[in-house]
Write a structure and sequence with these properties.
Layout lengths: L1 H38 L11 H14 L6 E4 L5 H6 L2 E5 L6 H4 L3 E3 L4 H39 L12 H11 L2 H9 L5 H6 L5 H4 L6 H26 L13 H23 L5 H23 L8 H5 L3 H33 L24 H4 L24 H5 L1
Parallel strand pairs: 1-2, 2-3
Helix pairs in contact: 5-7, 5-10, 5-11, 7-12, 10-11, 10-14, 11-12, 11-14
Length: about 400
C-alpha cells in the first residue's frame, strides 16, 4: 500500500507539472497571439483596466516585441505604473494631480503637445545625438590614426608623433565645444514642416541613422582622412630636409603639422554636418582654432617643451600652407561631395526639393474631435464644477484648435 501510494503521488506530481507546463505554454501562446492581433489593428482600446493591467499591457509589448520602443502617456495617479513600465513615459500636469508628471520622463500641460514632442523634438534629438556619436568616433580616428600611419615611415620605432602637452588638450579645448553647440541648436527642417509632414518621423521610427553601417562609415571615413593627413604631413616636411635659410627640419615639425591639420579638419567638419549655420556655431569654431593658435604661441616660448621655437619656424615655411590647403581639399571637399551625393539620392527617392516644402502659412489646420460640451457651456454659462485652474485636461469644450495653439 505504501509503495502504491508513493507511485500515485509521483504520478499526480508529474501530471501537475505537465498541466502547469501546458498552462504556461498556453498563456505564452495567448500573449503572443494577443500581440499579433494588436499589430493587425490600427488602434486597440482597453476598457475598465486597472493600473496594474495598464502596466502589464506595456510590459507585454516590451517582452513580445523587444525591437520596438514603447511610449506611455497619462494624466493621473492610476497611470504611474504604465508610465514607469514604458521606454518613454509622459505625464500631464492637470486636474488629476502631479503624480503622473513626477513619475514621467517628460511632462507638459495638454495632450496636443505630444505631436510636437514626437515629430519635432523627438525626431531632431534622435538625429542630432546620432550625428554627435558618429562624429566623436570620426574625430578620434582622425586624431589617433596619423600616429599609426606615421609608424610605417619610422619603421615602428614607437616614437610619439604628437607633443605630450598638446595631446592632452585635443578633446578638452580644441575639438569639444563645436559639436556640443551642433547637438543643441542644429535644425534640419523647420518645425512646422516636420509637424505637418509626419513621414519625416520615419528617420527615427525606422532607426535609419543609428545603424552599424553608419557607424562603420564614420570610422572608415576617419581612417581614410587620417591617411591623407599623415601622408601630407610627411611629404610636406620630411622630403624637404632643410629650410630656405639652411636649418634642418625637426622631427616634431612633422608632428606639429599633423596635429594642426587634425584640429583644422575636425572643426571644419562641423560646418559640413550643420544644416543650419548660426552665429554661435561659427564663433565657437573660430574660437576653438584661436585657442589652439594661442596655445602654440605659448608652447613656442617655453624652453622645457619639445615645441620650443618650432611654431615660429613652421609659419615661415611655404610647405606648411600648401599642406593645410591640400589637407582641406583631400578631406573636407571629399565630405562635401559625399554629402551632396546623399542629398541628390534623397531627392531622387522622395521627389522632394526645397521648393516643395510647405510654407508656414500653407499648413492646414487639423481639426480635433472634442467631447460634447454640456448645454450650460453651449449657452455661454460657466459651470462651477467644470471650472479649471490648470490647462492639463485631455479634452476641452471649445471648437477646433486655433492656429496659434497648433503651432505652439
Amino acid at each position: 500500500m505504501m509503495a502504491e501510494s508513493g507511485r500515485n503521488k509521483l504520478l499526480e506530481s508529474k501530471m501537475s507539472e505537465s498541466r502547469l507546463r501546458n498552462f504556461r505554454e498556453g498563456i505564452g501562446n495567448t500573449r503572443q497571439r494577443l500581440v499579433e492581433l494588436g499589430d493587425k489593428a490600427a488602434a486597440v482600446i482597453a476598457c475598465r483596466v486597472s493600473p496594474k493591467q495598464k502596466q502589464e499591457i506595456v510590459s507585454l509589448v516590451r517582452q513580445e516585441k523587444p525591437e520596438i520602443n514603447t511610449l506611455a502617456i497619462g494624466d493621473g495617479a492610476n497611470d504611474v505604473n504604465m508610465i514607469i513600465a514604458a521606454h518613454v513615459g509622459i505625464g500631464l500636469k492637470g486636474v488629476e494631480g502631479q503624480q503622473a508628471a513626477r513619475a514621467s520622463d517628460y511632462s507638459f500641460g495638454e495632450f496636443k503637445h505630444l505631436r510636437r514632442l514626437l515629430l519635432y523634438y523627438g525626431r531632431e534629438c534622435y538625429r542630432r545625438n546620432t550625428t554627435l556619436i558618429h562624429y566623436n568616433f570620426f574625430k578620434n580616428m582622425v586624431w589617433v590614426l596619423p600616429q599609426f600611419w606615421y609608424a610605417v615611415y619610422n619603421m615602428f620605432s614607437a616614437a610619439t608623433l604628437y607633443d605630450s602637452y598638446l595631446l592632452q588638450f585635443f578633446n578638452l579645448l580644441y575639438a569639444s565645444l563645436p559639436i556640443i553647440i551642433f547637438a543643441v541648436f542644429d535644425e534640419e527642417k523647420p518645425d512646422y514642416v516636420l509637424i505637418s509632414v509626419p513621414r519625416h518621423y520615419d528617420l527615427g521610427r525606422l532607426d535609419m541613422e543609428f545603424t552599424a553601417f553608419e557607424f562603420w562609415k564614420s570610422v572608415v571615413n576617419g581612417a581614410l582622412q587620417a591617411i591623407a593627413i599623415a601622408y601630407i604631413s610627411v611629404h610636406c616636411i620630411e622630403n624637404n630636409f632643410s629650410s630656405p635659410d639652411g636649418y634642418n627640419q625637426n622631427f616634431y615639425m612633422t608632428g606639429l603639422i599633423a596635429y594642426t591639420l587634425c584640429v583644422i579638419v575636425v572643426n571644419i567638419k562641423i560646418f559640413l554636418l550643420s544644416n543650419k549655420q548660426i552665429l554661435l556655431n561659427i564663433l565657437i569654431v573660430i574660437g576653438s582654432l584661436l585657442v589652439y593658435l594661442i596655445s602654440l604661441v605659448i608652447f613656442n616660448v617655453l624652453s622645457f617643451t619639445n615645441l620650443h621655437l618650432i611654431f615660429s619656424h613652421m609659419i615661415t615655411l611655404s610647405n606648411f600652407y600648401q599642406g593645410v590647403f591640400l589637407a582641406i581639399v583631400a578631406t573636407n571637399f571629399f565630405d562635401m561631395a559625399v554629402k551632396r551625393f546623399q542629398y541628390l539620392g534623397v531627392q531622387m527617392k522622395t521627389k522632394e526639393t526645397i521648393y516643395d516644402l510647405p510654407k508656414k502659412e500653407e499648413i492646414p489646420l487639423i481639426p480635433v474631435r472634442t467631447s460634447s460640451p454640456p448645454s450650460e457651456i453651449l449657452n455661454g454659462e460657466r459651470v462651477p464644477g467644470l471650472q479649471r485652474n490648470n490647462t492639463g485636461f485631455a479634452f476641452s469644450g471649445g471648437n477646433d484648435v486655433e492656429p496659434a495653439d497648433y503651432m505652439n
